[in-house]
Each structure stands twice: as structure tokens, then as C-alpha cells.
Amino acid sequence: MEQIYKYIDDNSQRFISELxxxxxxxxxSSQRIGVEECARLLAGMMEDVGIRxxxxxxxxxxxxxxxxxxxxxxxxxxxxxxxGHFDVQPxxxxxxxxxxxxxxxxxxxxxxxxxxADNKGQLFAHIKAVEAIMxxxxxxxxxxxxxxxxxxxxxxPSLDDFVRAHPDRFAADMAYNSDGAMDSSGRxxxxxxxxxxxxxxxxxxxxxxxxxxxxxxxxxxxxxxxVIEFLSTLHDSTGRVAIEGFYDDIxxxxxxxxxxxxxxxxxxxKTRRYLGLKRFDGPEDMGYWEKIMFQPTLxxxxxxxxxxxxxxxxxxxxxxxxxxxxxxVKNQVPRDIFAKxxxxxxxxGFGDMELKLLTTYNPAKTSIDHPMSKAIVAGVKKAxxxxxxxHPVTGGSNPSSIITDFLGIPIIxxxxxxxxxxxxxxxxxxxxxxxxxxxxxxxxxxxxxxxS
Length: 452
Ligand SMILES: [Zn+2]
Known about the structure:
Helices cover 33% and strands 21% of the residues. The protein is α+β, with helices and mostly antiparallel strands. The longest helix is centred in the first third of the chain and has 21 residues, at 116-136. Zinc ion (ZN) is lined by residues 89, 118, 153, 423-424.
């Protein structure tokens, strides 16, 4: 490994400038800006290090370009599928950036640019690990396949159907992904799963237009009273979701998962102060991490009706819109939860309200005891010189279930971004030291996995 680490250190300046070229190319999937151009640029950079690439249009409405890559090694016994994405979130609000989002700028040891951490820089680390191994050891210890998603930031709407139609192409023994943030202490994290999502919208209307609240107030109903009445049926007094069958399928953490949760560094008092909170939600007898990793939620994301601006406007609103996201845990099925939500609405007498399902993600989980876990812990520890923290599940959502549940491949995520990477926000950044350690981590992990 010494020779490989030396190659990475010796070439770090070039790696940074190549990454900057990738960051200069916008690839905003939600606005359909530059995604095709970025796919071609990325594929070229992968070809440069010896990864055979194809740009695969995924069909559907936007025909987004998946970048597929593979590099096989004559002696390798295992195949690792790398998942990453090259699309980015919109950069707005532009005035909040200290330097333009698509002009990568280095300040205080960080590269500031949209996509630097989420996810171009982290994906690029794997590619540069391939280069470092090929230039020093000549052959990779494992076969690698790359699945570079062009639409992760909009929920990967085309990926599921595409992978289902081409399962052999993505077949592998295990999968590895780097996205998100390390612990705030600077210690690396291994994440074994993620929660799913069921995102829906409710619309309810009374009159055909907004009205003067004095001229019409009294006989004309305000839609908010019924919507609020409905929303209050969704939670019981302890904060538990009151939809029948909502918790039916969930499974408690295993002893190994409980042990891992207990080892996650966490200062409840400090976290509450950091968030400006007086208390956390119940149940009292359940820990912070168990609530995030093994419990589903029902969250009111947004509520709009009438006037919410400065000063007064005496309006009697005619319609109300509510956005709800439910984070789901292993064994819950988004469509089933949606059906239960709909039934709850109907049985409580609110079946006349419009209910729309917007997006779903399945939850996914890899066993914390899987043999690849030990190998990745060893690889990450060597590169970061620090003991990784094991997270049985991450609270957020991603398309991993297509890999775990459909392809049947275990996946472990190891973030290379810092805890203050500002992903999805202005001044997104990648700590250069972590980018370089990330390249070393990927290279080391490939060796450890080959021996696992
Ligand atoms: Zn993201």
C-alpha cells in the first residue's frame, strides 16, 4: 500500500485540478442543465485511467445518461459494484455563495463548488484509486463495475426500471458507495442501510377563489379547519403515528445493531443545545439513534394556504396544500404505507380530499455482520488512521434497495465528506485532506475486499 499511497500523495495536485474540471461542468438534474455533457466528461476521465465506459440512455421521459464503467483484472475473484452519482442539486440561492458554485475555489484547505462533496468528489476518489493502483501495482485486486447515476438528486426515477431490465450488467459480489458526511469528530462512518420514503401531497379546496374574510367570513367554510382536523388524527398524544398497521412490519434492531448504536459517540445535551431544542420527541424509553435508524416517521414538510407574509391581509383562503414525507424502515413497503394512509383518510371521513403520491424509496439494509464489513473497516481505518463508527442505518433515503433487494448485493456506504460539507446548500465544499484520504481508503478497501 505504501507505494500506492506515495503515488496518491505525489499526484494530489493533479487530482484536485482534474476534479475541478469535473466540478466546472454543471449537471443539475432537476433543471436538466449539463447532465449529458457531464456524463461525457466523466466517462472520458474514467477511460483515461483504464475503465471501459459506456453511456447508457435509460429511456423514459428524459432519457437520462447513466455512465457505466468496468475494469476487470485477470486474477481477481471478486467483483465490486461502485455506486455514485454525478448530478447535483440546483445552486440557488446564488447570492449566498462566497464564490460562484461552478467555479471551484480553494479556501482553507477546501474546494468550494456545487457537487464537490455531493457527489462528484467522492465518486472521483474511487476513479483516482483505480489510477493509483494501475500505475503502481499494474492490476486491480478486484473487478470493478461503476454505476454512475445521472438523477440521484431527483430521486433516481429511471434507475429502478433500467437495472431491472439489465440485471446481469450490474451483477457483483458486493457494492461500495461514498456519499454524505463523516462524523463531526472527524471519524469515518460505515453505513449499512437507509430509511425509505413515501412522499405525498394533500390538496383540499372549499370556495372557487380566495375571498374577503369580512365580506364572506361566516357562511363560507375555510378549508384549513378540516385539513387541521385531519392532520391531528395522524398522531396520538405520545407522538406515535396513529395510522392503523403503520408499525406492523418493522423489526427491532439485532443485538449487533444495538451494540453498534451504543458505540456511536453522542452527547444528547450538546445536540439539543446545538439544535436550540428544549426536548426531543418520545417515546422516552427509546434512544436517539434507534428513533432515527429503526423507527418510521410521519413528517409534515410543508403547509400552504392563505397569506403568510409580513403584516396583515384579511383573506379567507379557498385552498390548502400539505406536503408529507414518511421515512420508512426495513420491511415497510412505500405503496403499502400509502394504501394504509389512504384508508386512514377514508375511515376518518376525509376521503374527499385529494391525495397524491409523489415519490417513493424503499428502505435498504445490509447485515452489520456481513464479512465485507470487517474488510471495509480495516481498509478505512488504515487510510483515515482512525477507527470507523458503524451506523446500522442512515436516516436519509437513496436508491440502494435496487442493489440490496433486487440485485441481491450487500452494499456499505463510507462517506468521504466532512460533517460541514454544506451539501444541498450554498458554499458546498470538500475538504482536500479527506478527498486524498478517500482515494487511499478506496484503494485500500479494494485490497481488503479481495482478501475477505
Ligand atoms: Zn445529494
